[in-house]
Amino acid sequence: QYMTPQVFAKQQGQMAVWIAEDDTVYAAGPFATHGVCLGPFMQFAPLFAQRMETLIVYDAKHFYHRMDAAGYSVRNVRADVLLGAYVLDAAQGGFSPERLVLQYLKEPLASCGSGCAVQLYTLWKKIEMLLREQSAFTLYQTVELPLAAVLCDMEKRGFHIDCTGLRDFGEQLGALCEVYAERIYCAAGMHFNILSPKQLAEVLYDRLGLPCRAKTKTGRSTSAEVLERLKPYYPIVNDILEYRQVAKLKSTYADGLLKVADAQGCVHSTFHQTVTATGRLSSSEPNLQNIPIRTELGRELRQFFLPAAENRVLIDADYSQIELRLLAAVSQDSAMLSAFENGVDIHTATASTVFGVPPEQVSREERKRAKAVNFGIVYGIGDFSLSQDLGITKKEAGEYIASYLSAYPGVAAYLKDVVCRARESGYVTTLFGRRRYIPELSSPKKQVQAFGERVAMNSPIQGTAADIIKMAMIAIDRALADGGFDAKLILQVHDELLIDCAAADAEQVMALVQEKMEHVVSLPVALTVDAVAGATWLQGH
Q1: Local confidence band at 1 (pLDDT 50, 70, 90 cut-offs)
Q2: CA proximity to 432, closest of 479, 469, 457
Q3: pTM higher than 0.85 for the full model?
Q4: Distance (Å, whole) CA 20 – CA 127
């Protein structure tokens, strides 16, 4: 069946729109229960723009990009099968149309476009019903769906880079690689491919006789974790780790960013809403969320990320210790809540309690160890992992954890309770109703169960943080538009937002961003945001 634009324009109610690989559009709904062929996408784009709220699509963000390319920048789709399925079960690991149709409709994806449109319509009705049954429709409707529009705009804007500076930086990194390589060859007494795990293992374990600390399915491990343990005793290992870091900075970032920059010197990352089980966003092609920050060379990369033009700045706004604040909020631990309410440094407070010294006498090393315990607890860390992180014995690490849980009994009770409830229900939820199912808790294998327990402890915290930053992005995007500011969101890196802003608006925008981020939700503990403006990402960080 075919339908003309004139007939299509008269149809009422929701309709599913399926776009085939050849750009032909098919539709289905109460008006066409067997599906109809509409025709080329470009021909119907003007009509779609007029009735976006009635359309059922698969992947609203992608649909927005298609509409933009056709000249219609409209952002009010109300039914997205992809995002609805993700909110229902973020941990299922795949959301292709084929998988969703098989999972929810118990049939294979149709072989014709009209049949796919019918399935899309039926699929949405099923997903919408389940979202409402699980009290997750509000999360879908007020967070994930409007965020798709924000992300579409961020992807279109991109992030401006200094191509000349980055090219020079890449040459410096290449020269540094050569220096490290020559030192490695000299220590090894031969040339070899340093980035080949097999050749590196032969050099380290056979030729030089270093102890092999771990094996994998493919042979003896040369992972960073293994080499870090050998580094204090063998100088060649430190050079290998440094070589790897510099080589990755050059290939992935210095060279990689230049390859994907457009003619205007902008890189356009793709933001994924449906990849992580916790609700966090991820970034790819290029991945701007993974640019190293802990090393000096990694930080240097940020100096090559710039505002879009002169007389503009980058505003970097970052939540301070949001996961620890959320832990205090959900556990209602009085000592932790008090520390945040009184503006006490939480790591110093923890060190004082765990190590039994007055706060003013806490050493830098003690604070560092307390910080590792604080954040480790959020991720369900065990004594072995903590001992590896801090370079202490497993016994000492166990004592640190025990002291911590004794100092914060509310946290200890919460962690125990959340695992218990997850075993009973099979899932955990964020403060805003995002579920994460944890089948690992019912595994007969103790190791798998232990992983499930760590997931149960961490997911409500990390997932709530993800929900909050998404809400903040939506609120900021609207506030900037409503206020008429010359400022736009361009990047999100977990708890951090970057805004490209006219220098004249910087102070007002910075205050607005802080206010929106700090008050986007109401919690028992205040959220705090650090915001800085600079001429580069490095200056603003």
Answers
A1: low
A2: 469
A3: yes
A4: 22
